[in-house]
Amino acid sequence: PALAVSVGEIVAALGRVDSAAPARVGFAPDARIEAQFGRWPRDASFARAAALGLERDDSIDAIIRDYATRP
Question: DSSP label at 11?
Answer without folding.
Answer: H
